[in-house]
């Protein structure tokens, strides 16, 4: 089987309510859906990239340029093979979102060709893992965050990830206290600062989160991405477990985190790693150092989050997922792939990603 073309289009999916972090506000998920076509009738691989430029540096134009200028010349007329998964990383640095879309479309084709769902193609003995997603509470005034959190709990989510880091730490502390007081004790609360704090604020936050007995299960990425040793110091210095997110793009980053002691919890995302092939390498490092992994997402829709779920089911160090972005859309456009039963996530039947490719594809082929 040969690759004959790569096509793509932009698609905006509006959200039910704006998603707000310390870094940005999102009202519409801006996807680029990617299709790798082959010479075999009906054999198309699908992928998705999103332009989270404040985290990955990737823009819509940049993603499209990487496809046009680098991945098309590399892939068109080549036979489908696993070797291509490595080649897409060697040919260009960065551009992890475009790489992720190409990587998942290649995996979609490889697994379809093997007549297996992708997670079984990745791991022939995947076990029987049952995963629940957390749901993120956007960064707003305390009363709005409490109202949102109560609604998510009523809807069946047992773990809420609270965005923090926009104002001073005292304001975050008050928001977390209001949430803890309003919610049933069984609800797990974690926090995500998205790199907001400097060294002093991070120490202050972790000390006071510890002392306030808020039972915060973990704090994600308190400081800047490149502050590896500070992240390790925070991870070793407080009771509240620290999770690395923006500091973890690559296997190189994973080794840095091991060296500095930020080695308890990692958030792996395909848009950061550049897809499943590199995520598996990060996972292998996590496994050899017994790091517990979450797989998360950017503001992505069901295509790329389906790929992330296949990876999560195949990778035994993955114990939790943050796959809430597709739940936030006003209307689901993508059929097949990831399914939700309240917080529970599972896959539809089907080989490869299991996405209804025909529905998405008709927009590009018409
Ligand atoms: C959507 C998910 N719950 C989440 O919070 N993801 C990121 C930020 C996503 C984005 O800005 O697109 C995270 O920091 O974990
Ligand atoms: Mg995060």
TrEMBL record:
Biological process, per Gene Ontology: peptide metabolic process
SUPFAM superfamilies given in the database record: Enolase C-terminal domain-like, Enolase N-terminal domain-like
Cofactor(s) in the UniProt record: Mg(2+)
A GO MF term: magnesium ion binding
Catalytic machinery residues: 163 (proton acceptor), 269 (proton acceptor)
Cofactor comment: Binds 1 Mg(2+) ion per subunit.
Residues annotated to bind substrate: 24, 136, 161, 297, 299, 322, 324
Domain Mandelate racemase/muconate lactonizing enzyme C-terminal stretches: 142-241
Keyword set, alphabetical order: Isomerase, Lyase, Magnesium, Metal-binding
Pfam families with a match to the protein in the record: MR_MLE_C, MR_MLE_N
Amino-acid positions noted as binding Mg(2+) in the UniProt annotation, renumbered to this chain: 192, 220, 245
EC number(s) stated in the UniProt entry for this protein: 5.1.1.-
Enzyme class, first EC level, given as a word: isomerase
InterPro entries per the UniProt record, alphabetical: Dipeptide_epimerase (IPR034603), Enolase-like_C_sf (IPR036849), Enolase-like_N (IPR029017), Enolase_C-like (IPR029065), Mandelate_racemase_C (IPR013342), Mandelate_racemase_N_dom (IPR013341)
PANTHER family: O-SUCCINYLBENZOATE SYNTHASE (PTHR48073:SF2), O-SUCCINYLBENZOATE SYNTHASE-RELATED (PTHR48073)
Similarity comment: Belongs to the mandelate racemase/muconate lactonizing enzyme family.
Protein name: Dipeptide epimerase
Name of the encoding gene: ykfB
